[in-house]
Amino acid sequence: MNFPKNKVPALLFALLASSQTFAKEDFKVCWSIYAGWMPWAYAEQSGIVDKWAEKYDINIDIVQINDYVESMNQYTAGQFDACTMAQMDALTIPAVGGVDSTVLIAGDYSNGNDAIILFGEDDLADIKGQSVNLVEYSVSHYLLARGLDTIGLSERDVQVVNTSDADLVSVFGTGDVSATVTWNPLVSEILSMPNTYDVFNSSQIPGEIIDGLIVNTKTLNDNPALGKALTGAWFEVMSKMSGNSDSAKEIRTLMAEAAETNLAGYDAQLAKTNMYYTPDAALELVNSPKLVDTMKHVAEFSFEHGLLGDGAPSADVVGIEMPAGTYGNPNNIKLRFDNTYMQMAADGKL
User: Fold this and answer.
1) Which residues are within 8 A (CB) of 47 and not within 5 positions of it... i.e. 6 or more apart?
2) How, if at all, do strands 159-162 and 131-134 pair?
3) Residues 231, 342 contacting (CB under 8 angstroms)
4) Cys-Cys crosslink for 83: which of 75, 143, 219, 335, Cβ 3.0 to 4.6 Å?
């Protein structure tokens, strides 16, 4: 077919434009201090993230944010493409906010890293009538509710005081602040104070507080290179940090320093974290039918506390898609557990 000369440039431009995928090249990932998320500090500092990003011809900026809730809010507002968070928070903040999000990497479940701590009392029942400082509506709030339920109490028996995780250590033990719920490394820091007691922790509800990396679903679908690079970087760090070799200890020491502790302190936190050091271990969790039951439990808690949005008619208003099944409204899927990239890691195809 022949075209007039003056039409050729315009036609070529149109053809090139129509063939573009509009994939991004630059991505931002945020994380906050927590035992199970310190590997992102090392992944960034060591150049491992840059190496995997270069492999897929993209750029990934790893950013630490000191306030956990602020990190999730910034992700929800679109300032980051991915963010570390617990699965309950992923449901009640970005998913409820209308941001379709995907659990790209299941990193761990808390196995004692989250705790209810009392000052001067060593029995959970002593919490009755006290003010409890915590990050409201976070997994700490969930742990409080689960703990109270085990002794026949409810939130009506305490006064929840919303407190930024950045302030929890400094206010504990001052004035009327004698009860708190938080996560490591803050737990270890508070328990190092005299006359403090861990009266209930996440090891008593194993597998219910899952931590991982959440990615905007549309961004992930449009840019599979991001999923491959992040998953590849994560499991490379996992393989390097696990075990008792000198190199593994050196890597964990660097993570400990980033968390403002030492190797012994960080290893103590990891001992209370069920890390998924291999993609196969992470897949076992993500593919399990038990995950459907766990997310149902989390959604019901969230609904009872008004965390699923104003006027939410029921706990299943938001759809949660998992390999073993879907909980909630299938026409309103806003949180997804995707095994695609972890399976690629397990198969050595990244």
Assistant:
1) none
2) parallel
3) yes
4) 75
